[in-house]
Amino acid sequence: xxxxxxxxxxxxxxxxxxxxxxxxxxxxxxxxxxxxxxxxxxxxxxxxxxxxxxxxxxxxxxxx
Length: 64
Fold this sequence. Notes:
This protein is of the alpha+beta class. It is built from two helices and two strands; from the N terminus they run E-H-E-H.
């Protein structure tokens, strides 16, 4: 992908990311952190679901 320091902020560039899962969120955060361009993240959900951690929410603690 090249050297990040060789690319500066481009005011006319606006990246639209569709999908706020692991990859979409990672890309959006890194583009904003490195101040490379404007970013819009589009996702139909209001929160990210951590699939591995979701298993803990279905455990019935009364059985232990």
